[in-house]
Amino acid sequence: MKRYIAAAILLALAAGAADARPYQEMFSNRTDFSDEEKPLLEKLDFQQGAIKLPTAKATLNVPEGFYFLSPEDTKTVLVDIWGNPPGAAADALGMLFPAQYSPTDAGSWGSVVEYSADGYVSDADAATIDYDDLLQNIKDSISESNTERQKQGFPTVTLVGWASAPHYDQSAHALHWARDLLFNENGNTQHTLNYSVRTLGREGVFQFDFVAGLEQLKEIETAVPTVTKLVQFDKGMAYGDHADGDKIAAYGMAGMIAAGAGAKVAAKIGLLAIAAAFLKKAWILVFVVFGGAISFVKKLFTGNKTPNA
User: Fold this and answer.
1) pTM
2) What is the pLDDT of residues 72-121, one digit of tens each?
3) What is the CB-side half-sphere exposure of residue 130 using CA atoms within 13 A?
4) Residues 121, 252 contacting (CB under 8 angstroms)
5) Beta-bridge mates of residue 161
6) Contact at 8 Å (CB) between 155 and 183?
7) pLDDT at site 185
8) Tell me, what's the pLDDT at 258?
């Protein structure tokens, strides 16, 4: 009897585990991949189902409409396929893609998945933040940094506005927003999209940063309600499990929006190192924009050690 019970448990665990597929199976209805694309796609395992992410103390439950790539496969996409420098994939736990696209498709988009163990982020101010005022402050900081960008020979950047205004999903403890950015290089202008989703946990923040063009905004907006519910924190690690004595993040909701991924990356590897080239999807330079807003971010990172009531 014990054998049968053990076998049943193993079967149940297998049923809930991630399902990795080769590209031929993931895109079984596709016959249009070129000879250049096939060797790159051969390197990738397309995963669906329950993806365990021990670093984040969470599981990512990936449904059929999406697929997940491991950190190693993420590096292949960001560096080998999309042409970013190796450091672009340094902290990634993986990437999430809509199932209708392969990473080699010209119209593809995906989200880099990361986790920041900065501590518990209070959502007490979520309903009272003046997002228009916050937007103007970020715009001013970016504008001030353009003078230095020009001196260094890099494109100037303008934050046009919210492509999608910040919204906090109380039930999922997930915040999402999008910025419309305009890059100007030698008189040529290019809009790009910076869409971010943050899911709050007891000990930190699960991060989704979308690599996409502004023309893909509607597709991403359709996907976001699903994305905000993909994260399942381990037992005792959910946002609602917060207890007195837990580590508290040095920023609130407004600081998280102002910083995005950019300030974190800029602090690690340097503003000019990130802006080495104008790369595919302008993803790296999106980070540079918010590296220029560090002075503003510091005002929001006030070092508060206790959450607001």
Assistant:
1) 0.79
2) 999 999 988 988 887 878 889 999 999 999 999 988 999 999 999 999 99
3) 5
4) yes
5) 180
6) yes
7) 67
8) 83
Q: C-alpha dihedral over 292, 77, 180, 136, to 10 degrees?
A: -30
Lookup: tokens for 2: 């014990």
Work out the burial of residue 245: count CB atoms within 10 Å of its CB; fewer than 13 is exposed, 13-18 middle, 19 or more buried: exposed
Name the β-bridge partners of 222.
none
Nearest residue to 121 via CA among 200, 43, 226, 208: 200
Q: At which residue do the structure tokens 């448990």 appear?
A: 9
Spatial separation of the C-alpha atoms in residues 264 and 269, rounded to whole Å? 9
Backbone angle region of 242, left / alpha / beta, with phi > 0 → left and psi within -120 to 50 → alpha: beta
Closest CA to 104 of 164, 59, 172, 40: 40
Return d(Cα 101, Cα 105) in angstroms, integer.
6
Other beta carbons within 10 angstroms of residue 9's beta carbon come to: 10
Contacts 24+ apart (CB under 8 A), 146-155: 146/292, 148/292, 149/275, 149/288, 149/292, 152/272, 152/275, 154/275, 154/285, 154/288, 155/183, 155/184, 155/185, 155/278, 155/285
Query: What pLDDT, in 10s, does the model give residues 174-186?
Result: 999 999 988 876 6
At 260 the pLDDT is 60
> What is the reported pLDDT for 7?
45
The count of C-alpha atoms lying within 13 angstroms of the C-alpha of 11, restricted to the half-sphere facing its C-beta, is: 6
Q: Which amino acid appears at position 27 of this protein?
A: F
Contact 90, 76 (CB under 8 A): no
Report how far apart, in Å, the C-alpha atoms of 114 and of each of 151, 212, 222, 229 are.
32, 17, 21, 16
DSSP per-residue string spanning 33-84: --TTHHHHHHT--EEEEEEEEGGGTEEEEE-TTEEEE-HHHHHIIIIIIT--
Phi and psi at residue 223, in whole multiples of 5°? Answer: -80, -25
Low-confidence residues of the chain: pLDDT under 50: 1-16, 261-309
